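User: Some background: our group keeps a shared notebook of sequences we're curious about, and every so often someone picks one and asks for a predicted structure to add to the entry. Today it's my turn. The entry only has the sequence so far, pasted here. Could you supply the structure so I can complete it?
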Amino acid sequence: METKQNKPEWQYNEMNLCGVKFDTEEFADNYDKHHEKFRDYKKEAQQRIEQLALDKQSTIIDMGCGTGAFAINAADYYKKIYAVDVSELMINHARRKANQAGIDNIEFHHGGFLTYEHKDEQVDGIVCTLVLHHLPDFWKQAALTRLAQMLKPGGRMLLFDVVFSFDINNYKTSIEKYIKTMVERLGIEMQQELETHIRQEYSTFDWVMEEMLKRAGFKINKSDYIEGF
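Assistant: Of course. Here's the predicted structure to add to the notebook entry:
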């Protein structure tokens, strides 16, 4: 496993997690058990695979792999997956799951958007699920620019995250409705996590995110927003 390299003092410390703290043994141990109550990892991975539309000779980066929800379920569909995460605890869980499943084409790296150094050839695809919001906007732009440089010409990236598309004049009612809807779907135990996300993490507007992607060198093929988020 490759580890993060030394960074300048002025660089944002992506290892110092903002908002919800998931870098503890207890959280990592319970992460899959909690999320599998309302997520179908295999179905989600299949959707991502279909959206990327790459062949089995492709290489991809799973940026923010967590416990391997995507990488492990997608391993049979790609030649190689580079699974990257800022949490060594989450990576260790993912590696154990991969070993138990006999998967040998996932290469695990401790790092993130700003610290991971891709030393192999450019990849065909990148999957980025619910992690970019951990960076302030300036560092999101730096992150997206770095990701674009890791992709082959014509490569594809799938970005799934919490992005605001509601009218800012209605932000109070929009956020309260969002939290209420998600709690109804996922359970009351999610309320504190959602409130922490809105209060302390760095989700941004749709028009900011789309402009950042374009400035990083991406062409947006499709964008979907649901109920203002």
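Suggested note for the entry: The beta strands are 59-63, 80-85, 106-110, 123-129, 151-160. The helical segments are 25-35, 41-52, 71-74, 88-100, 137-150, 171-186, 191-200, 206-216.
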